[in-house]
C-alpha cells in the first residue's frame, strides 16, 4: 500500500476518533451549558439581542453570594485537607503492606466513592439525627456533618491515587536512609514523601474539585443554610427562575473548576513520570503490627468509624419502624409511599435506574475509550502535545460544571438537536445521555494511564512492519486497554446509577430513577416515607457496591486508573 494512502487513512481514523467525542461533548455538554449561561447575559429588546453583563454586579453586590462562595471554597479546602491527612496512612496500609483481606478492604474503601450522593446524605443524616446513634454529637444540619460526608466520599480517591504510586516505589532509598541512622519518621519525611508529592498533589486537586462541586450531599445535609455554588444554582433555577443569577454562579463555578483541573493536569503529568521511573513489580511487604501501629490505627479508625459505621447504621435503621423491628420498610417499596408520595414504586424506579445506567455506560465507554486512545498519544511537536493536553482537560470539565446547569440546559436546547425531527426531552434518551456526560471523565481517567504505560516502540515496530492503524490498535493497544475495561465499565455503571443533579431535572415522574425517588421520599412527611427512603438507600447502596466488587474482581491491571 502506498505511503501516502497509509498516511491518509491514519489521519482519517484519528480524525474520527477525536471528532466523534468532540461532537458528542459539543452537542450534549457545551451547547446546553453555553445556551443556559447566555440566556442569563443576553437581553431582548426592540433593537434586538444585546449583551448585558450587569448581572455580575448585581449578584456580587449581594452578601449572600460571597457567603456561598466562601462556604464552597472552605468546604473544599477542609474536605481536601482531612481526606489527604487520613488517606495517606490508608494508602500505606492498603498498598505498601501485605496482609490477608487486603483486596477486600481495597474494594470496600472504594464503595463510598461510587455511592450516590443522596445515599451518602441519607446515611449520615440517619446517623446524626436526634435519636440516631451519634445524635448526642448534635451534628445534624451542621457544616461539620457536610465535611464528614465529603471525607467519607473522597477518602478512596486519596488512597487509590497515592497508593498506586507508593506500591511501586523502590524501597531501597528509604532503607538506605534508615541504615544511615534516620528515624522512620525522618526517612519518610525526607525520602518517601517527596517521591509521593506528585500523587498527593494530584489526589488533592481532584478531591477539592469533588468537594467544591458536591450537590446531593449538601442538599440533604445542609439545605439552604449551608448552600454552595452548586445548590444555589439549583435554587435560583428551580425556585426563582432567575437565569441571570444562575448564569453568573455557573461562570464562577467554571473558573474554580478550570483552576482545579489545571493543577490536576500538571500534578498528574508529574505522577505519570514518577510511575514510569518506578519498579514494575509491587514493593509491598508484610504488615508489621508494631512498626506500622500508627498508620494501622488511623486506617482502622477511618474504615470502622467513618466508612463502615454510616453504612451499617443505614442498614440497621432500615429495619426499624414505629411498631418495632420488621421488614415493613422493604415491603413498602412495592407501593407508592404514604399519601401516594411517588408516581412509581421503588422497584420500578430501580428497573428504570438499571436500564438507563446500562445505556449510559455503553455511551460513556465508547466515547471515553476514544478520548483515552487519542489523548494517550505522545506527539513529537509542541503544538501536538498542547492539543492533546487541551483535549484531556476539555473532557474533564463535566466533572466540575454544575449538573444542574447541564440538566436545565438540556431542557431548553434539546427539543430538536441538529435539526433532527425528534424531541429528546420526551424520547427517554435524555437521562442516559446526561449520565454518560458525567461518567465519561471517569472512564477516561481509568483507561488512560494504562494506554500511556504502553511502550511507544511497540506501536512503531508494528507500523514499521506494515500494519495499518487499525491493525496496530488491535494488536497492541486493544489487548492492553482491555485490562482496565472491566473497571471502567464498573465506574461508569455505578456513577450512572447514582447520578442525581441532572437526572432530577430530566427524569419524568413516571420514569423516575432511584436517587430521585429517594430524595422525594425524604422530602415527604411521615415515618412510612422516611423508612422507605432508608430501605431504598440500602437497595441502591448494595447495587452500586455489588457493581464495584464485580468490577474489581474482573480487573486485569491492578495499577490501572487514577481513581
From TrEMBL:
PROSITE patterns: ABC_TM1
Membrane topology: Multi-pass membrane protein
Coiled-coil residues: none
Gene3D superfamilies, alphabetized: MetI-like
UniProt domain ABC transmembrane type-1: residue ranges: 69-264, 350-551
Subcellular location: Cell inner membrane; Cell membrane
Keyword ATP-binding among UniProt keywords: no
Record-annotated membrane-spanning stretches: 12-34, 73-95, 107-129, 141-162, 196-223, 243-264, 293-316, 357-375, 387-412, 432-451, 485-507, 530-551
Keywords, ordered alphabetically: Cell inner membrane, Cell membrane, Membrane, Transmembrane, Transmembrane helix, Transport
Family matches, as PANTHER family: INNER MEMBRANE ABC TRANSPORTER PERMEASE PROTEIN YDCV
Protein name: Sulfate transport system permease protein CysW
Species this chain originates from: Oerskovia enterophila
Amino acid at each position: 500500500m502506498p505511503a501516502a494512502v497509509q498516511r491518509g487513512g491514519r489521519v482519517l481514523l484519528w480524525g474520527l476518533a477525536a471528532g466523534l467525542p468532540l461532537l458528542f461533548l459539543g452537542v450534549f455538554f457545551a451547547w446546553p451549558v453555553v445556551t443556559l449561561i447566555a440566556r442569563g447575559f443576553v437581553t431582548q429588546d426592540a433593537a434586538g439581542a444585546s449583551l448585558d453583563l450587569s448581572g455580575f454586579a448585581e449578584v456580587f453586590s449581594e452578601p449572600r453570594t460571597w457567603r456561598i462562595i466562601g462556604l464552597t471554597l472552605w468546604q473544599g479546602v477542609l474536605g481536601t485537607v482531612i481526606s489527604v491527612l487520613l488517606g495517606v496512612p490508608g494508602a500505606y496500609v492498603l498498598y505498601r503492606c501485605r496482609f490477608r483481606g487486603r483486596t477486600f478492604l481495597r474494594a470496600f474503601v472504594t464503595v463510598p466513592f461510587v455511592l450516590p450522593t443522596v445515599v451518602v446524605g441519607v446515611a449520615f443524616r440517619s446517623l446524626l439525627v436526634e435519636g440516631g446513634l451519634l445524635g448526642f454529637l448534635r451534628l445534624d444540619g451542621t457544616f461539620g456533618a457536610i465535611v464528614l460526608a465529603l471525607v467519607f466520599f473522597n477518602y478512596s480517591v486519596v488512597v487509590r491515587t497515592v497508593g498506586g504510586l507508593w506500591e511501586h516505589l523502590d524501597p531501597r532509598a528509604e532503607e538506605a536512609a534508615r541504615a544511615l541512622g534516620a528515624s522512620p519518621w525522618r526517612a519518610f519525611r525526607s525520602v518517601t514523601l517527596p517521591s509521593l508529592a506528585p500523587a498527593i498533589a494530584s489526589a488533592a486537586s481532584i478531591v477539592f474539585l469533588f468537594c467544591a462541586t458536591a450537590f446531593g450531599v449538601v442538599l440533604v445535609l445542609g439545605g439552604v443554610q449551608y448552600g454552595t455554588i452548586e445548590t444555589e444554582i439549583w435554587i435560583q433555577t428551580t425556585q426563582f427562575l432567575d437565569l441571570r443569577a444562575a448564569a453568573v454562579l455557573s461562570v464562577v463555578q467554571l473558573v474554580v473548576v478550570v483552576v482545579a483541573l489545571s493543577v490536576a493536569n500538571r500534578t498528574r503529568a508529574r505522577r505519570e513520570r514518577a510511575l514510569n521511573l518506578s519498579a514494575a513489580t509491587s514493593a509491598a511487604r508484610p504488615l508489621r503490627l508494631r512498626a506500622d501501629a500508627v498508620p494501622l490505627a488511623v486506617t482502622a479508625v477511618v474504615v470502622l468509624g467513618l466508612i463502615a459505621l454510616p453504612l451499617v447504621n443505614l442498614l440497621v435503621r432500615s429495619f426499624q419502624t414505629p411498631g418495632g423491628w420488621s421488614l415493613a420498610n422493604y415491603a413498602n417499596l412495592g407501593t407508592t409511599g404514604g399519601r401516594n408520595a411517588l408516581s412509581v414504586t421503588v422497584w420500578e424506579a430501580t428497573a428504570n435506574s438499571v436500564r438507563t445506567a446500562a445505556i449510559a455506560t455503553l455511551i460513556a465507554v465508547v466515547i471515553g475509550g476514544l478520548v483515552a486512545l487519542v489523548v494517550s498519544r505522545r506527539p513529537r511537536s509542541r503544538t501536538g502535545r498542547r492539543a492533546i493536553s487541551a483535549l484531556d482537560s476539555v473532557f474533564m470539565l463535566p466533572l466540575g460544571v454544575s449538573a444542574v446547569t447541564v440538566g436545565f440546559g438540556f431542557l431548553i436546547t434539546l427539543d430538536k438537536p441538529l435539526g433532527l425531527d425528534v424531541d429528546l426531552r420526551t424520547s427517554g434518551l435524555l437521562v442516559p445521555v446526561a449520565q454518560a456526560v458525567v461518567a465519561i471523565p471517569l472512564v477516561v481517567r481509568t483507561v488512560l494511564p494504562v494506554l500511556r504505560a504502553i511502550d511507544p516502540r511497540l506501536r512503531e515496530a508494528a507500523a514499521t512492519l506494515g500494519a495499518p492503524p487499525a491493525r496496530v490498535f488491535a494488536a497492541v493497544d486493544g489487548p492492553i486497554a482491555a485490562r482496565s475495561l472491566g473497571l471502567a465499565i464498573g465506574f461508569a455503571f455505578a456513577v450512572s446509577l447514582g447520578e442525581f443533579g441532572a437526572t432530577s431535572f430530566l427524569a419524568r415522574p413516571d420514569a423516575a430513577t432511584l436517587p430521585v425517588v429517594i430524595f422525594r421520599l425524604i422530602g415527604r412527611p411521615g415515618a412510612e416515607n422516611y423508612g422507605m427512603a432508608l430501605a431504598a438507600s440500602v437497595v441502591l447502596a448494595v447495587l452500586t457496591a455489588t457493581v464495584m466488587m464485580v468490577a474489581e474482581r474482573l480487573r486485569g491491571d491492578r495499577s490501572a486508573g487514577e481513581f
